[in-house]
Specification:
single chain, 100 residues, mainly alpha, 5 helices
Length: 100
């Protein structure tokens, strides 16, 4: 569980990230989060760049991780930020699902 200071930093990072344009591919995001927690930011960025080189997805992932780093979030806390972004995106998909 993050400290109260880290919780504040998570909130500040999420606010700085704003409306993420991440098209969250579930399997890929699971792997990015796993690498982020187990090996840290640098390895997670390298993994992202290997699979999504020169794409908007990679640029967005790097942007999100850079903001998390700027707010001194531990990799585990950055993974929580990704979870939060995934939940928001899932809610938006449900809200704007025109197939219903």
């Amino acid at each position: 569980m993050p400290s109260s200071n880290e919780t504040e930093n998570i909130g500040a990072a999420i606010k700085a990230i704003g409306a993420s344009r991440l098209p969250l591919l579930e399997a890929f995001m699971d792997e990015v989060q796993r690498i982020l927690v187990e090996k840290g930011y640098d390895e997670a960025i390298v993994y992202s760049e290997q699979f999504f080189q020169s794409t908007d997805l990679n640029a967005e992932l790097v942007r999100v991780m850079t903001i998390c780093r700027r707010y001194n979030l531990k990799p585990e806390a950055a993974a929580q930020v990704f979870d939060y972004l995934r939940r928001i995106q899932a809610e938006n998909r449900e809200h704007f699902d025109l197939s219903q």
